[in-house]
Design goal:
Protein name: DUF3971 domain-containing protein
Order of helices and strands: EEEEEEEEEEEEHEEEHHEEEEHH
Number of domains: 1
Shape: globular
Pfam family, one: YhdP
Number of strands: 19
Oligomer: single chain
Number of helices: 5
Strand content: over 45%
Domain YhdP central: 33-279
Radius of gyration: 24 Å
Organism: Campylobacter jejuni
Distance between the termini: 50 Å
InterPro entries: YhdP_central
Length: 281
């Protein structure tokens, strides 16, 4: 546990037991708990938990189907840090109820709303109104600027689900493939005259986009990528093997959109260069 930037290692506890109920409060007011024979109620404030997989355990994944505990959790300004993947999931407010084999969790961070229901045969996750600050905080990099993002996942469990990501009005700043694309455009002099000013200043400008995906055991498949921007549109599909850590994607780039608009006004060039689709891919 971390309190701010400091490891949370020392505190004073006030423990009271009355009629089978144990109440615990910390002097720092960062944690409290109320424990009975059939329920555990926990509240945390201003704390971050660093989660690390147990390398000595053959299966460190929580199996909700075998859970018999009833736990209620409330948090204010709390975060889950995942050092293995360099991700941070933070909440201004979060409330969770784990009862038997069902988990119901609701949280918020700024304008973003986080809603999760997970049981032994049902998974339903919706994260809406994600802004650039929250997404960059989660990714631990300045990946995007501006925009609103939404994520939805529905399935029968953590290894079988369908999902969708959609967004509007963002600039992609720090994704490796986009940076390589920008570098390529910059190295081709004949393309520079057609490049939109928004292509390399704030990042790659995208008006809207949608990514549709699904997971079946170790295979994560992306059935559709559709990103619409000022200077380039990106379409594609692909897959990733989560066990082998391999990816295989095919992308089509509709580039030089400003050039296409200019060329389309010249009849001969329009016919020879653009063809019937009126675009350069």
């Amino acid at each position: 546990l971390i309190n701010g930037q400091t490891p949370y290692e020392n505190d004073s506890f006030d423990i009271v037991k009355n009629k089978g109920i144990i109440e615990i409060h910390t002097q720092s007011d960062t944690a409290s708990a109320k424990i009975s024979s059939d329920n555990k109620e926990i509240h945390l404030k201003n704390l971050s938990y660093i989660y690390k997989k147990d390398s000595n355990s053959s299966n460190s994944t929580f199996d909700i189907s075998t859970n018999t505990q009833n736990i209620s959790f409330g948090g204010a300004n709390v975060a889950l840090i995942l050092p293995d993947s360099n991700k941070t999931l933070a909440f201004d407010r979060v409330e969770a109820d784990l009862k038997g084999n069902a988990l119901d969790l609701k949280g918020s961070r700024g304008n973003a709303k986080f809603d999760l229901y997970y049981s032994s045969n049902d998974l339903n996750l919706n994260v809406s109104n994600i802004d650039d600050n929250y997404l960059n905080e989660f990714l631990q990099k300045q990946a995007v600027q501006d925009g609103v993002f939404n994520l939805s996942i529905k399935g029968s469990g953590l290894e079988y689900f369908d999902g969708q990501i959609d967004f509007k009005n963002t600039y992609v700043k720090d994704l490796r493939g986009i940076n390589q694309l920008i570098s390529f455009i910059d190295t081709v002099p004949s393309l520079l005259m057609f490049k939109s000013p928004t292509f390399n200043q704030k990042g790659l400008s995208l008006h809207d986009g949608k990514i549709i995906f699904n997971r079946k055991k170790d295979l994560l498949s992306v059935s559709a990528i559709n990103l619409n921007g000022d200077s380039v549109d990106i379409y594609g599909l692909g897959s990733a093997n989560l066990r082998l850590n391999t990816v295989d994607f095919s992308l089509e780039l509709k580039t030089l959109k400003s050039a296409s608009e200019a060329i389309s006004k010249v009849p001969i060039l329009n016919y020879v260069i653009l063809g019937k689709n009126q675009e350069i891919s």
